[in-house]
Structures are given as C-alpha cells and as structure tokens.
Input
Amino acid sequence: MSSQNGGGILRQPMSVWATAFAAVVAFMGIGLVDPILPSIAKGLNAGPSQVSLLFTSYFLVTAVAMLVTGWVSSRIGGRRTLLLGLALVVVFAALAGTSGSVGELIGFRAGWGLGNALFVATALAVIVGAASGGAEAAIILYEAALGLGISMGPLVGAALGDWNWRAPFFGTATLMAVGFVLIATLLKAAPGPAARTRLGDPLRALAHGGLSTTAFTAFFYNFAFFTILAFTPFILGMSPYGIGAVFFGWGVCVALASVFAAPALQRRIGSVKVLHLSLGVLALLQVGIALSGHAGIVVFVILSGIPIGLNNTVFTEAAMEVSDAPRPVASAGYNFVRWMGGALAPYIVTKLGEEFGAAVPYCLGALCCLAGMAVLYGRRHHMRSLERVDVDHALQDASVPA
Output
C-alpha cells in the first residue's frame, strides 16, 4: 500500500474515527459468540444446531433489513440512522444477556441483527463520504474496522464468557453505548440526499450484471466463510479461551490481509483475479480442515483468515464500484444477497455435521467456493468495469514518489 494511501487512512476527521470505533464493536458482535457457543449450548440445554440459529436469526434479519436501510437513511439522515441502529443493538444485546431459553436468545439476536443492519450499511456510506483520501482509503479503513472487530470479538467473548456466558452480551451493549455517545457528539448531520431512496431500489440495482455477479459470488463465499465461523467451535474441543485464541489468530489474518495484502494484489493482478485466487485458496483450506486432525484444524482455520480478508476488501470495493447505482443502494442490494449466505450456512452445516460427521460441512464449504468461482467466471464479462478501478489504483501508485 502506498504511503499516500497510508497517510489518507490515518489522517481522518474525529467523526470518521468515532464511526470506525462503533463499527469495530458492531463487527465484534459477529465473532463474540464463537468461543461461548458450547457454553451457551450447555447453559441453555440446547444442541449445536439449535445454538447455530444465533447466527441464522442475526444474519437473516440483517440481510432483509438491508433492503430498507437506504429508505430509512434517505429520510432521517445518515447520523440518525447510525444512532437508531446503535440504540437497537444496545437494547437487544442487553436483552440477550437476560435470556432464559435458547428461543429467547435467538429472538433477541434477531433484533440485534436489525440494529446491526441499520448501522453497518450506513457506516460504510458515512465513512466513504467523510473520510479523507478517497473511496479506496475509506473502504480499507472500513475493512480494517471489520478485521479488528472480528479478531477482538472472540477474545472479548472468551474473557467475559469464561466468567459467565451472559457477560459478553452485556459487555457489547456497554461498548455500543459508548459508540452511541461518540457519534452523537462528534458526527455532525450531513446534508440530506438529493433524492429519497425507494424501497425497491436495492433490488432494482441488482439488475445490473456486475452488481448481481458480485452479490451472488459473495453469497457462496459467505456460506463458506460462516461454515468456518459457526461450526468450528464445536469440533475444537477447547475452552472458551482456547477457541478465542484460535479465532483471534484467524481475525488478525483477516485484518492484515484486508488492509495490506488485498490492495497490493489488486494492483498487481486485478480485482477479479484476486477473487478467483482467494476463493480457490479458501476451498483448499476447507478441504484441509476436513481431512486434518486437531492440530491441522487449528492451523488451517487460522490461515483461512488470509483469503477471507482478501475477499472482504475486494468484494466490498467491487460492490461499490462495479455499477452506476448510488453507493448506499448498491451496498444494500449486495449485502441483502451476500448475508443470506451467512444466514443459511450456520444451521445447515451444523445439522450436516451432527448427522454425517465433522468433515461434511467443510466439504460443502469448499464446493461453495468453487460455485462462486464458476459464477464469477461464467459472468466475467459483467466485471470489466472493475478494470478501470484497478487502472486508477495503479496510476495512484505510479504518482507516488519512490
């Protein structure tokens, strides 16, 4: 990554840092429950597939709610949408900590998913609009927040969950309340959009060949991603600290690959080739997990963070740049499709693991990676507009003195 871009990432208004902090905490919520999934199952007398519905309810509501985020933010403004999303997360994360049954916890996680959708979709648009250094620097900053949140989530979940499985939920509610205060005090209301977003605009945006190709490739990728995230804690046979340590290492790989490796590879071989490479590597690592003993599983899970980090950055940038739809609209349509993969995977793969053995979910995850590559290859002509983005990145690098 060039020094110019690095400077652009670091020199940001306080409002951007406040939004990024809240984004870190929001993404912590994804990996927060990972180390404590076995503890939750034990504490609430539930099976692995029942507990996996914590992911399914969260991401199913997140996916559907993505379709209304633009409609909401174009009417009440980005700042109020962020605050509404944060407030919902605070309330439902705290309620999750009071759950007396797995059904209640699943329901509260669904409400958490609604708040997360309002916040995450709007946070990306706010950061892109307010950050210095252009859209590329803003997206890298957003992905850095994602990587940091995903890596810290398992550690926070393990540290608090080792004391009591309810504690991580109260901890998240507290941190999100801090994010609410920071955004309320540091982020000024921006001028409203020139036109209000209609409810159907995100689905209409998917009529664009490039955006639909990106979204459906990401659907298969997210299925593979959440195969690792949702099912692996049940086969590691480790304490919350052990599971948290494994996924912290995984999350560090996600963050480093997102921020440093993805931009460099995009400039060298182009965005579409990076997606093919990272999906292929992720498929191989999933096969490695399926065929390995305990030590191999740990190693391959941690290494899977590298292709996941590459994918996260390149998919996000592709969704923002491949079509002519407004970025919030393109983001909503793309996230609706891709989070469906995250919603379906946890329950399906955990049920398959219970019925047919621990290797089967990872074999399915590998097949999903290959399916994503097939979609990307078969519809490659729709992705040609990304070549312009790659050329722009290369020209930016060439303009920076050695």
Observations:
- The chain has a mean pLDDT of 88.
- The CA atoms of residues 83 and 184 lie 7 Å apart.
- The chain is about 85% helix and 0% strand.
